[in-house]
Specification:
Layout: H1 2-14, H2 18-31, H3 38-54, H4 63-74, H5 81-94, H6 99-105, H7 119-125, H8 132-144, H9 150-166, H10 173-188, H11 235-261, H12 268-271, H13 275-289, H14 299-320, H15 325-339, H16 346-359, H17 368-382, H18 386-398, H19 400-406, H20 409-423, H21 425-439, H22 445-453, H23 455-467, H24 470-473, H25 487-491, H26 497-503, H27 517-523, H28 531-554, H29 557-570, H30 578-598, H31 602-605, H32 607-614, H33 624-637, H34 648-671, H35 680-696, H36 701-715, H37 722-739, H38 742-749, H39 754-757, H40 767-781
Helix pairs in contact: 2-3, 3-5, 4-5, 8-9, 8-10, 9-11, 10-11, 10-13, 11-14, 13-14, 14-16, 15-16, 16-17, 16-18, 17-20, 18-21, 20-21, 20-23, 21-28, 22-28, 23-28, 28-30, 30-33, 33-35, 34-35, 34-36, 35-36, 35-37, 35-38, 36-37
Amino acid sequence: MALQAVDNLLQKARKASDEDIEKLCNNILETFDVPEKSAECTNLLRQLFFILQSSEHPTGISKKLLANLITSVGSMSEKNTKHCLLCQRIVKEVMPLEAEDVSELLQPEAGSSGTKNLIPLYIAQGKRFGCIKPVLSSAIRWLSSQSYDFESQRQGFVFLVAVSILHSSSLNTDYIQTTSEQISQWLLNASVQQAPNPYTINPFRKDQTNVVNEVDGTPSQNFFTLLNIGQYYTEDQLMNIYSFSMLYKWLYHCHQHQTSTDDQIPVYSKVFGNLSSKTVDYCFRVLDQCERKVKVGSDSDLQTACLYEAVCILDLICTIDGGHIPRVHQEIKRLYSRIYQDTTYFPVIIQILQFFLNHSGAVVHDPQETYNNVFTDILMNSYGDQGLMFDLICFIRKNLETLCYKTSVLSTFFPNIFKILAWHPRTFLGEFIDILPALMTPSTSLEIFHTLLDLPCMTAALEVKEKSPDSLSNTSVSTSTNTPTTSIDAYQMALYRPLFIFITRIEGGHGDTINRLKSLHSVLDDLKKSARVLVTSQTVPVLLRVWFEEILENGGQEFAIQLLPVLLERSDLLYPITEFVKDVKRIISENLVKIMKKYKSIITSQYGEISDFLISTSNIVNRENFYTNLVWCVGEFCSVQHSELCTADLIAKYYGLLEAVTYETSGILVASNNSSDITPKTLSCLISALAKLATRCQDLIPRAILCLTKVAKQHIDNTEDPEGGEILVTRCQELINILKLPNFASMILNPSQEIETGRWHRDNTCLPIILRSTHRYLVTDG
């Protein structure tokens, strides 16, 4: 009911006409400055904001109302905060449409007390109308002078950080230096005394100020940080907290701006002054505080968040100023040794890994131990945690090039990484499309191909492991040889446990696949309708296309030769999910042709593998497209044009092979009474390939004509499939007629490669176009 009510309100707001909005604006103007009608005015403003936000088309308001709204924002105080924030949101909504009016009304006035309240509008407006620079001067003045109140300093600092993010070119070196100096003071010079209770006044008791506490409840004996606990905070303590919270953004964007505009290195010494060293001291203090045991349970989340931010900032500081790397590296190593086994700190561990990746080279430190911990133990035990896996996937994508070229992480641990996709197929498919090419190397690509085809099995195996009792996961298993009734029963049996271990392995390089895949498919049969398994099966075709694209671009002929027997085997060895099998077979069949087209000599060099596959007509069953595509490739590319190693003997061997298969296939079609898995399409492809081969070795032409004649006679009276029989007879007769003219047959069935690369069908002077044009004129004249 609530959702329906909201939907009705949205529909009503979207249907509001310009007249309705104008009437609403007039009502707001009538009540805007009337104290007695403030509640009514606020309700009208809410309606206007809702309509503006819901509208599918930009809608404007009158200039008079716009001026009142901006004036109201500038006069914001504690008494009218809600009203003014609502006005601010409305101005932001109409700002793109009313840009010129807003810029006219928003021009900063020197010394105006309302400037600080208008800062969000200045930021939203940008520097198009010249408002940023005047406000920058005011913001710097608020920061550098102690005469301004806390709110002015806070707003000024927020404005400067926002400008560094959105309009960094507006910041000059002086602005950055002044702000950085002020941040340094806020970080290390905040009071350690708690603020007095502002809600109680006792004239008979002498004021007592208490020192802020550490997270474990003990009084603080060091400088103040955001992890110090107090009942009430002073203004300088709040600025300390704000400074640390926005420090990373300030450092990062200012550094990016300076490095893009200043060729002088190092930039940090000129711009940030002593902020980098003071930031390191502050972060070290935070690291020490995070070692304390919290007194209040909820503070542990605060510790983790602060720890993560501190490591991020230290990583950035070391990027800005490499002189800090040695001492920071020691602290980060100490931190890692303390938390590496605790998955609650996983985001921090990932950030530590990022630090090691960025800076270990400067101190000759090998972070392999950290890689092993993250990509084996943590990933193996936490792949089901979507939040943790999101952090890990983001880390991999961010550092894809470094991990690919400078470490062996991706090529070693890719089976474990694929568990993330196997368990969260909907969530991370897009990320794996980007990651997959980086996982592929000459030594891992075949294993990854098998892993992709077996991805639904991996999902099913992981589900089995999740459902199995913990007591059965790591202890002895049954030695029974009985046929298991469920996948969980199979997991508990010694005969099948190795299959589960292999399909959920952690590292690659232990063999591309196993020779008992059919057994694995059979024991996992009860999970093929599982929702997660079905979704995983839908991701495989997408990733297979990416895999083949990478192979076609970078694979090379040697790899294609290794791939061929794998394609021959795996094209019919798939987890039996109907749509999955259909899609995968189609993709493999299509890419078989692409690979053969690119590496045509494979037909010549791999005669043994190809002939063993083609000679058995049972291979046509359930993979007719794959079989016919391979036959087409033989007929098309078994030629001296494509390989100097192609001899008349090899052509004769292929011809003899295809001739035998043609007779067998034709006989099966005639005797099948329309119930065979073999269709006329296969036979048509076979006879076409025979004719092509015969044109390349003219001694074979009489045999080819005889074979085609026999096939035509077999199907001329085909009553079971008259349409298919007619097509075959017509095709045979066409090929016979062509082969009876050997010289022309060679040109038609075995044309020069220039037919694809030349100008035969595009050049206006070419013979086919002239003949067609002449024929057209003659027919018209007649």
